[in-house]
Amino acid sequence: MSELTGLRARKKERMHDAIGDAAVSLFLERGFDRVSVNDIAAAAEVSKPTLFRYFPTKEDLVLYRFADHQGEAAHVVRDRKSGIKPVTALHRHFRAGLDRYDPVTGLSDHPEVVVFHRLVFTTPSLAGRLTWYQLEDEEALADALGEGIQAHLLAAQVLAVQRVLARTNWQKIADGRTAHDVHPEAVADADQAFNQLP
Description:
Blueprint: H1 2-30, H2 37-44, H3 48-54, H4 60-63, H5 72-79, H6 86-99, H7 111-122, H8 124-145, H9 149-174, H10 179-195
Helix pairs in contact: 1-2, 5-8, 6-10, 7-8, 7-9, 8-9, 9-10
């Protein structure tokens, strides 16, 4: 029975990825607002109802790529070693992402990543939906930090810092610099920003 369940889950995951990949390819080629849900369904060879079973909104067809990072800050805080302050753990995690040139830090010059970020940051409906994802992350991080207004304020500050750092890094790369060239500045910016947090 579990083998059958595993097969179904893998099949659903492949379908999810195929629909998402078809959508992102079309969006990058034509622009988000010039692609209809019908276009995506046709490219993925699925019906519109099937598409919406996997992705509730058109924006989710793009932003699902951020799903791997959903709740990441909360996990970092919960999984930190004893004696390590939450902000220190989050700072180290972001720095490690910079050293890996992780796209979520904005420090990736892979052409597809740069174009993908441009799509997200310059399409108002995508930027708005991304804010919704970030608010969910903020709530999860606040829960991991504790109770009360202090936890919520710190969560908001941390995620704002990460957002500004990532956007700054991406902009420098979008302006034609390499990730390797931007890396020292990105590290210095991250150190300065995280050191200002309580």
